[in-house]
Write a structure and sequence with these properties.
It is a single chain. The protein is 53% helix and 18% strand. By secondary structure, the protein is an alpha+beta fold. It folds into three domains: 6-163, Beta-Lactamase (2-Layer Sandwich); 221-306, Helix Hairpins, CATH 1.10.287; 315-460, Histidine kinase-like ATPase, C-terminal domain (Heat Shock Protein 90). Helix 1 (6-55) packs antiparallel against helix 4, helix 2 (59-67) crosses helix 3 (69-76) and helix 5 (224-271) runs antiparallel to helix 6 (276-306). The longest helix is centred in the first third of the chain and has 50 residues, at 6-55. The protein binds adenosine-5'-triphosphate and magnesium ion (MG).
């Protein structure tokens, strides 16, 4: 799509608006003036015919017209006026028509009728110039024969005035449009300057200054929403960046512990000659540490992969009864070791990726077994609910405080690192559960009170 500058658009809009506004206003004035002039011309014509009619009642006047017609020609004053006086149905007494224009035939106003503006006719001359004309019978007085007066006026001067007026209107409207363009550019530039300042301020924000926020001072109110959104984005970025930093710090820390152990043990082993049993123990211990590191790296890789935006999963309908039973059996021995029992209550099917579902449930169950009170019972409850499947793993044990609950699903987060068996706990299990639920567009949650901890999953049905 073609991108136009805001200044250009504003300038064009203002120019078009002012041109239209001035043209409309000018046109209204033009038509009002034309109307006024037309009424004035009509009235002048009526009054002239009326005057001549009054004059013709006098015998001497008729005599004078016959003898000195040029006096009347002079009286009319210009070549635009036409006058014909003739006996009704008879000879012409006077004809003043310097340009020899053709006069349209017109029914005269009867002698006993008043002359009004309605008697005036309008037509266009052969050259297109408008013309007004009328005819009237002069009332016969003093036993004189009636006369017909035909008077006309070609309105070329009026046309000229109106034409000039119209041209001026167009000129002024165009000038105003041009002035508007210049003003619009100036105003738009000035109006946009807060945006430029905002851009400058945003440009100064980098990874080191993610905590800074844009303020609304000396910025127009219309930009408040934009600033709010940018600030909210900065907040999200800051949080994300902080998490990333935390993850790499935690990862370095978590790798350092087994590596330090490995280094220390190997160094001691190399320090002096040892018997076979010692080396076997050393290698066994090293193997465990290496296994732990390998598990952790696997988990990190899984999380990195799960975060790929185009990550696809293989969803199918899985019998949750069978799945939970199998899982219960799998953890039976470990549970027995810790003197806890596992109960399952399940019904229905869940639409999920089988491997990922198993992994999420295994993570929850391994936590439950690890943190359950000895002698207590762990319960897995799965049932269809709200267009999906809800699965809850419940165990009795120490209550997790709300502050910890909020962060349990973060990577490397452990509620109480000192209590955890660091050889087996990496703090990644729940973040993997969270990623799996995101891949399924589902939800996961935790609830812990009065010594009962519940972790819940909700898988949506196939859309
Ligand atoms: N059922 C539970 N009862 C009490 N605390 C729990 C429970 N499940 C998890 N937690 C707390 O949440 C923390 C994070 O659990 P998560 O599964 O992510 O990591 P982990 O179990 O410590 O390590 P990993 O699962 O990677 O071996 C645990 O360290 C523990 O403090
Ligand atoms: Mg765990």
């Amino acid at each position: 799509m073609k991108r136009n500058s805001l200044t250009f658009r504003l300038a064009l809009l203002l120019a078009a608006f002012s041109f239209v506004a001035f043209t409309v206003m000018g046109s209204a004035l033009y038509y009002a003036l034309r109307q006024q002039l037309s009424i004035r011309d009509d009235a002048a014509l009526v009054s002239r015919v009326d005057q001549i009619s009054t004059l013709l009642r006098d015998l001497d006047a008729r005599q004078l017209i016959r003898e000195k017609p040029h006096l009347f020609a002079n009286m009319l004053g210009n070549t635009e006026s036409l006058l014909v006086i003739r006996y009704v149905g008879g000879a012409t007494l006077l004809e003043v028509n310097p340009m020899q224009r053709a006069l349209p035939t017109v029914t005269p106003v009867a002698a006993n009728q008043r002359l009004t503006l309605e008697a005036v006719h309008h037509a266009n001359n052969a050259d297109g110039t408008p013309m007004v004309y009328m005819a009237a019978i002069s009332p016969s007085a003093n036993n004189l024969p009636p006369l017909e007066i035909v008077s006309a006026r070609v309105l070329s001067d009026r046309t000229h005035i109106l034409e000039e007026y119209r041209n001026k209107i167009i000129l002024f409207a165009s000038m105003m449009a041009a002035i508007s363009v210049v003003l619009a550019v100036i105003f738009a530039r000035r109006g946009i300057s807060p945006l430029r300042r905002l851009a400058d301020r945003t440009a100064t924000i980098g990874t080191q200054t993610l905590s800074s926020r844009l303020d609304k001072q000396d910025v127009p109110m219309e930009l408040d929403a934009l600033i709010d959104q940018i600030n909210a984005m900065l907040e999200r970025l800051e949080r994300g960046f902080q998490q990333l930093k935390q993850v790499s710090a935690d990862m370095a820390h978590d790798l350092r512990t087994p590596i330090t152990t490995l280094l220390g043990q190997t160094e001691v082993g190399l320090g002096a000659a040892r018997d076979n049993a010692y080396y076997q123990r050393l290698l066994g211990s090293n193997f465990e540490e290496l296994q732990r590191m390998s598990r952790m790296i696997d988990n990190m890789l899984f999380l990195a992969q799960a975060e790929q935006p185009d990550q696809e999963i293989q969803r199918r309908d899985i019998d949750i009864v069978e799945e939970t039973h199998r899982l219960g059996e799998y953890f039976e021995d470990l549970a027995a070791e810790r003197e806890v029992t596992i109960q399952t209550h399940a019904s229905g099917t869940v639409n999920a990726d089988a491997l990922l579902l198993r992994r999420a449930l295994a993570n929850l169950l391994s936590n439950a077994v690890r943190y359950a009170e000895p002698g207590s019972e762990i319960e897995i409850a799965a049932r269809p609910e709200a267009e999906g499947m809800s699965i809850v793993v419940m165990n009795r044990g120490e209550t997790i405080s709300p502050a910890h609950q909020e962060r349990l699903f973060d990577r490397f987060y452990r509620a109480d690192p000192s209590r955890n068996d660091s050889a087996h706990s990496s703090g990644l299990g729940l973040s993997i559960v969270h990623s799996i639920m995101q891949l399924h567009k589902g939800r996961c949650w935790v609830e812990s009170q009065s010594g009962v901890t519940r972790f819940g999953l909700w898988f949506p049905d196939r859309n």
